[in-house]
Amino acid sequence: MTAPVRFPRFFVTSPSPCPYLPGRSERKVFTELKGAHADSLNDALSRIGFRRSQTVAYRPSCLDCNACISVRVVADEFAASSTQKRNLKRNGDLVTTVCHPWSTSEQFELLQRYLSVRHPGGGMTAMDETDFADMVEHSPVTSYLIEYREPSADGVTPGKLVGACLTDKQGDGLSMIYSFYEPEHGSRPGLGNYIILDHIVRAAEMDLPYVYLGYWVEGSPRMQYKVRYRPLEKLSRDGWERLSPEDQDALIAAAVNSERPAEAPCGNGIKDGVPKAQRERNIA
Questions:
Q1: Minimal CA–CA distance to 163: which of 147, 143, 175, 145?
Q2: What is the CA radius of gyration of the chain?
Q3: Can you tell me whether residue 89 is helix, strand or coil?
Q4: What was the pLDDT predicted at 216?
Q5: Number of domains in the chain
Q6: Residue 4 lies in a domain
Q7: Which H or E run includes 40?
């Protein structure tokens, strides 16, 4: 006898100020990820624009706005620009380690330095070490904490930690949940971009077709770095579609000309995430 299919229950958050577009409000729909089928549910939901935050999968469900667009890089067709090639070469000596999702004080201290410089006053600056451990360790799906370290003098002792990324391995790609890095490293500019480039290379080597970058918001300067990776696909009402070279050229030109923070954005609470206090009303 076949067990009945159990559909997830969905909830919706109350409206709150949008962290990306001034004067607008945001609302999210989300469901809990748990049990033996959490990986397959997360995979299925990611293909229709959901993202994971700890034990929930969520997507924007704003009443009067659809500016948040899911984007992903086609890893096995990625074509690095000259700037990206220089970045890969400059940081190619970093020692990368794929770790189980277990938090450390060293990671937390790096996160604090990152937030204090890149996102002072943001929602995550109030996180303590327990909150950070919850973010990293409370994953019901296949996740890793990828560390980026400088080479050590003796080749044995772990070098300085300069970057890290919480990453989900999905059936069709890698999903970058949250990355952070040394914010003022004079000899290694572009660490945030390097972490993305490394994920693209890593996905291709694993025969995974995509790297999921979360949401892109046209008109939000701090989200424009995502359009620099080619080829890029976006999720529309008709499914995933590839940006044409001409459209992506125009977006990259606009990103170059816009005033924006140095690299990666940080959302309200958790980057692209759902703060616990917002998990409120049942809509299913």
A1: 147
A2: 19
A3: helix
A4: 95
A5: 1
A6: no
A7: helix 38-46
In a domain, 3, yes or no: no
DSSP state of 179: E
- Give tens-digit pLDDT for 72-104: 999 999 999 999 999 999 999 999 999 999 999
Expressed as residue numbers, the domain containing 153 is: 10-282
Which are the contacts of 136, defined by CB distance < 8 A and separation ≥ 6? 101, 102, 103, 107, 145, 166
Q: Average pLDDT, stretch 30-58?
A: 96
- Can you tell me the mean pLDDT for 129-150? 96
Residue 54 belongs to some domain of the structure: yes
Over range 99-113, report the average pLDDT: 96
DSSP assigned state of 276 = G
- The CATH code of the domain that includes 47 is 3.40.630.30
**Average pLDDT of the chain, as a whole number:** 88
Whether residue 261 is contained in a domain is answered as yes
Token readout for 101 is 């999702």
**Strand pairing category for 16-17 and 10-12:** unpaired
Instruction: Find out whether 30 and 273 touch, Cβ atoms under 8 Å.
Output: no
